[in-house]
Design goal:
Two copies of one chain form a homodimer. By secondary structure, chain A is an alpha+beta fold. Chain A has one domain: Gcn5-related N-acetyltransferase (GNAT) (Aminopeptidase, 3-Layer(aba) Sandwich), CATH 3.40.630.30. In chain A, about 35% of the residues lie in helices and about 30% in strands. In chain A, strands 1-2-3-4-5 form a five-stranded mixed beta sheet, with helices on both faces. In chain A, strand 3 and strand 4 form a beta hairpin. The interface between A and B is large, with 75 and 75 residues. Strand 7 of chain A pairs antiparallel with strand 5 of chain B.
Chain lengths: ~170, ~170
């Protein structure tokens, strides 16, 4: 099946918001998702974007029964580690279930690797849910390492009242 | 003891590089550190910086016996999650051992929280080594959550030949 991988633009935010929620439902974390289409439009497509995106799109004749042609996405931003320097960080990687098994997820991730290498990055980093064995297997097949398992790094977060409190001098 | 927290500039990269290595030695990952002072200068202080930094500095009269007055640092960049949107990501947080226990680490992290909130971020994210119990205790005291332990997210990385291979269409 034909598909295209291209840079996301502001008109894609409705579909990205839809797929963000589909991915969260798949990962059983949908109650954690607070962002909306409007947030994505503002945060990704203003003068100083917090992320960039790529979209996987199929031709009209392969649209879903709901009429969707944008059937996968990945978000990313440039980041840094003091081990290896420049890094590209992949936020999400998602392909709608009926379009899986055709290399579209691999193509999305490959595009981020290309963009990262072109920007001088030596690593592509991301977080993945350990319960999601098929995703982990996919990442391992691409040669990824599990830094949490191998070295013991845990992903930590401070938010809400704790963040407000921390910010007080 | 007096100290100042201020934005890092390119002249700080020699001291940041020194402290990056001290931190890596403390965490027993110094063989993973590939970046140099020159990398930091280029990656953090060019037109499109990959990170920002803050420095903790003490007055001359409190300099170390080696003559250092820059005695702590943290690096950060702006990032994104599709759960909660805008995030600030802390790369490292380090205070030289002889200056610990005086709130300088807390002040550095607090500064990043302030900068993040001012930019509309709702979360401060980072990775921490699970073996480093005193650091983890410090982070828990600041109200941080261990997302790896709580939800099962693992930090993953693709680099070297695997990244080159992934980028091939």
């Amino acid at each position: 099946m034909d598909y295209t991988i291209r840079a996301a633009n502001v008109e894609d935010c409705q579909d990205i918001a839809r797929m963000v929620m589909e991915l969260a439902e798949h990962d059983k974390v949908s109650d954690l998702v607070k962002i909306t289409q409007e947030d994505l439009e503002q945060d990704g497509f203003s003068k100083k974007p917090f992320f960039h995106g790529i979209i996987a799109e199929v031709p009209e004749q392969h649209r879903t029964k709901e009429g969707h042609t944008k059937i996968g996405y990945a978000l990313y931003f440039y980041s840094y580690t003091t081990w290896k320097g420049r890094a590209v960080y992949m936020v999400d990687l998602y392909v709608m279930p009926e379009f899986r098994g055709r290399g579209i997820g691999k193509a999305l991730m490959s595009k981020i690797a290309q963009l990262g290498l072109a920007a001088g990055c030596t690593q592509l980093n991301f977080i993945a849910l350990e319960q999601n064995k098929s995703s982990l297997d996919f990442y391992f097949r691409q040669g990824c390492s599990d830094i949490t398992a191998d070295i013991g790094y845990h992903y930590m977060s401070c938010n809400g009242e704790a963040l407000e409190h921390l910010a007080q001098p």
